Amino acid sequence: MTVSGRVRTKGGRTRRRLLDAAAAEVARNGRAGASLSAIAAAAGLKAGSIYFHFESRERLIEAVLEEGLRATLERLDAALAAEGDHAPPAARLRAAIRAHAVAAHELRDYTVAVLAPDFPDGGTAGALRRDYVGRWAELVAEAQSTGHLPDSVDPRLVRDLLFGALNAVSLAGRPPAEAASAVYALLRLG
Amino acid sequence: MTVSGRVRTKGGRTRRRLLDAAAAEVARNGRAGASLSAIAAAAGLKAGSIYFHFESRERLIEAVLEEGLRATLERLDAALAAEGDHAPPAARLRAAIRAHAVAAHELRDYTVAVLAPDFPDGGTAGALRRDYVGRWAELVAEAQSTGHLPDSVDPRLVRDLLFGALNAVSLAGRPPAEAASAVYALLRLG
Amino acid sequence: MTVSGRVRTKGGRTRRRLLDAAAAEVARNGRAGASLSAIAAAAGLKAGSIYFHFESRERLIEAVLEEGLRATLERLDAALAAEGDHAPPAARLRAAIRAHAVAAHELRDYTVAVLAPDFPDGGTAGALRRDYVGRWAELVAEAQSTGHLPDSVDPRLVRDLLFGALNAVSLAGRPPAEAASAVYALLRLG
Amino acid sequence: MTVSGRVRTKGGRTRRRLLDAAAAEVARNGRAGASLSAIAAAAGLKAGSIYFHFESRERLIEAVLEEGLRATLERLDAALAAEGDHAPPAARLRAAIRAHAVAAHELRDYTVAVLAPDFPDGGTAGALRRDYVGRWAELVAEAQSTGHLPDSVDPRLVRDLLFGALNAVSLAGRPPAEAASAVYALLRLG
DNA sequence: CATGAATGAGTGTTCATTCAT
DNA sequence: CATGAATGAACACTCATTCAT
Fold first, then answer.
1. Domain HTH tetR-type: where (chains A, B, C, D) (predicted)?
2. Is the dihedral of CA A74, A79, A83, A86 positive or negative?
3. Distance CA B154, CA B144 (A)
4. A161–B32: do the CB atoms touch at under 8 Å?
5. Straight-line distance from CA A48 to C1' F18, in Å?
6. Is position D92 within any domain?
7. Which residues of chain C have pLDDT under 50?
8. What one-character DSSP code corresponds to residue A2?
9. d(Cα B16, Cα B9) in Å, to the nearest integer?
């Protein structure tokens, strides 16, 4: 499972293989349980060779988080763009829900990494995360302002409930389309 | 943070301290990342002494899962009993939602442990878990049968979305009452 | 497997059970590999209780060696006494060979302990051992003086060859009588 | 004390040092008592580094047994070859006795390891051992068939008595030539 | 770019020993 | 007499990291 994009150089391809292997390891064994030797083996390398591509274990995992978030953001952007800038808030929220579910499913390993409770607030990954959750809070607020969602609730709380719900079932292996339409139905979104 | 109950013997008290410490460690560092030395230190022991109380690291963590699930089940039972056997399905579901949110919040460390993706299907903990999720699926199905929830959706999917939503925000530190009422509002549960 | 003797007191019986269990453990796992908890369990006690009967692990094992040697010496004495003080040297040596083989077989666990390469020279056990091997050197020398064994060889070397041969096969499980007569035959002892 | 052969690579030399150190440790403290830290220290490494060269403690010790047996077998082959294919059985047995005594003495640590009562029947080492003892049984049977040894005794029993005798005195430090000629004399082989 | 070899700090676990009960 | 509870040192083993090759 890879995140996107083409790479020309050999080093770039190895880097990509390492990221994928690391995402899988973190998904399977948790951030603390992910072993560099296992990652290296899965990428066809010896452990020491990782250090040619990443400064440290910490940086490798950070890079996984960044890649995962960047790809998820791209998908959100693409989905909203496809909907059109002036689409009604409910449609935009539906598109976002579907995009999130699909991303959580397709980038599963990367997503699990992002969910780790010890996610670092700082660094590029933290910034990307803040970006993503900020965008979502806006989408929810818009939908509340048009009455599609109850406006008695803090939009960030709604967003977090949605993330929790979508992530949990997407990672459990359910088809993302099913998860998304279940959410539409429960929220009477549409 | 402890799970409940009084213990008379010295060994029993140490065991309880170990369970609490282990729950906290697992919550903080994940199942794979939880270290026995850290757990022992938090419980005021040396690492080796754990083995007087638990056969192995694995058994200690299993015991944490069991305690957490047992306490959560007790709370669900109590909440439903308080509602009365013949309460309407919507009220019963609301009570369950509130109980789950409160439990997830108050037993936070134990709950996080239960959420670990590598939760063991077998053993006592697995059985307790199956019990709990089974009960919830029934509650959802009842609420669907009376029209309080859309019946186009697999009740187990609804249940998992609810768990995901409630766990995520409860563990993030939000007051559980707030999370519960947000869910009532979003689901138009009254 | 016990070494001999009757004991009246309860403490004495526990001590005996501990010695037997220790002999078995040492025989099975080697001196270094013998675990006090295993010994205690085999004797129906908890590890800590051993210290009521023996000062330390070291002393317990030493006591095993002493018991084994004492019993082996008793058997040698009895066999020679049965032969009569004035029996011919060849008959005395044959009796000693048979007694040693039988002892090695019947006291197998204790014998194995005595054979451990890290046998302590000092202490009571060392003295008993020196006694036993000294007696044997004399028996061999007598047999050489009457021409029953080649007298070109250091009697202590002969003794050690005999010990090595008899111990090895007795411990391997062969019936001791068979081992003894094989040795008679090979040495043309009659 | 090393077993034979030259090695070019650095890793190969470290491996050899580890084998020698392990043989010595096993000889001194028994199979169960041999500690990896001690072995590593004797080989000039830290304990963890052993795992670059051997999969586990078990495999390291197994390798010691294999090396010891392989070297002992080579010496037996060489001794018999030097005697010539058509040498009389008594001469062949004498050569074998001398070769075994010399091997037990020169490869002392490895030999002691091979003698450990918990020798594993399976694996390469077990096969080598069966090979060696099988060859010896044949040598004894030949000598019996020509009347050089009493033929009333099971040749495997004779072989085990010889092993026991030779091993015991060789390991005790006696010059192997002396042990071998003592055995010739006692068996009237000479 | 990548590996072979090593390290030092960490892991979970066992064990002899102590001592209050 | 014996156990329950704890310790501290050892154990085998893993791992992130380094660096010469």
1. 12-72
2. negative
3. 10
4. no
5. 9
6. yes
7. none
8. -
9. 11
Per-residue three-class SS string for C50-74: HHHHCCCHHHHHHHHHHHHHHHHHH
Residue B188 structure tokens: 């138009």
Protein CA at B40 to nucleotide C1' at E13, angstroms = 14
Q: What is the CATH number of the domain that holds C89?
A: 1.10.357.10
Q: List Cβ<8 Å contacts ≥24 apart for B4-13.
A: B4/B71, B4/B74, B11/B52, B11/B53
D101 Cβ contact partners less than 8 Å away, ≥ 6 residues apart? D166, D170, D176, D177, D179, D180, D183
The per-type count for chain A, helices as H runs and strands as E runs, is 9, 0
Report the amino acid identity of residue D116: A
Burial class (CB in 10 A: 0-12, 13-18, 19+), B57: middle
Query: Does C26 lie at the interface with D, CB-CB under 8 angstroms?
Result: no
- Label residue C32 exposed, middle or buried (CB < 10 Å: 0-12, 13-18, 19+): middle
Q: Could you tell me where the DSSP H helices lie in B84-152?
A: 89-106, 108-115, 123-145
For residue B148, what are its two tokens?
A: 């309080």
Contact A72, A112 (CB under 8 A): no
Which nucleotide is closest to the Cα of A35 by its C1'? F15
Distance CA A67, CA A48 (A): 23
Within-domain flag for C166: yes
Q: Is residue B35 included in any domain, yes or no?
A: yes
The CB-side HSE value for C102 (13 A sphere, CA atoms) comes to: 15
Q: Tokens 């591509």 label which residue?
A: A53
Read off the amino acid at residue B157.
L
Within a domain: B3: no
Nearest 10 degrees: CA dihedral of A47, A50, A54, A56?
10
Q: Tell which residue, A175, A172, A28, A186, has the closest CA to residue A102.
A: A175
**8-state DSSP, B45:** S
Q: What is the pTM of this model?
A: 0.90
Angle, helix D89-106 to helix D123-145, in steps of 10 degrees: 150
Q: Which domain holds residue C78?
A: 10-187
HEC profile of A56-102 = CHHHHHHHHHHHHHHHHHHHHHHHHHHHCCCCCHHHHHHHHHHHHHH
Please enumerate, as own/partner, the contacts of D48-55 that have beta carbons within 8 Å and a separation of 24 or more: D50/D18, D52/D11, D53/D11, D53/D14, D53/D15, D53/D18, D54/D15, D54/D18
Please give the tally of structural domains in chain A: 1
Tokens of A101: 């579910």
Contact B167 A168 (CB under 8 A): yes
D23 touches chain C (CB under 8 A): no
A71 within 8 A of A128, measured Cβ to Cβ: no
pLDDT in tens, chain D (190 residues): 787 666 778 888 999 999 999 999 998 888 889 999 999 999 999 999 999 999 999 999 999 999 999 999 999 999 999 999 899 999 999 999 999 999 999 999 998 777 776 788 888 999 999 999 999 999 999 999 999 999 999 999 999 999 999 999 988 889 999 999 999 999 999 7
Q: How far is CA C77 from CA C64, C84, C98, C145, in A?
A: 20, 11, 12, 21
Length of chain C: 190
Can you tell me the distance from the alpha carbon of A128 to that of A133, in angstroms, rounded to the nearest whole number? 9
> Of B32, B171, B186, which has the smallest distance from its Cβ to A158's Cβ?
B186
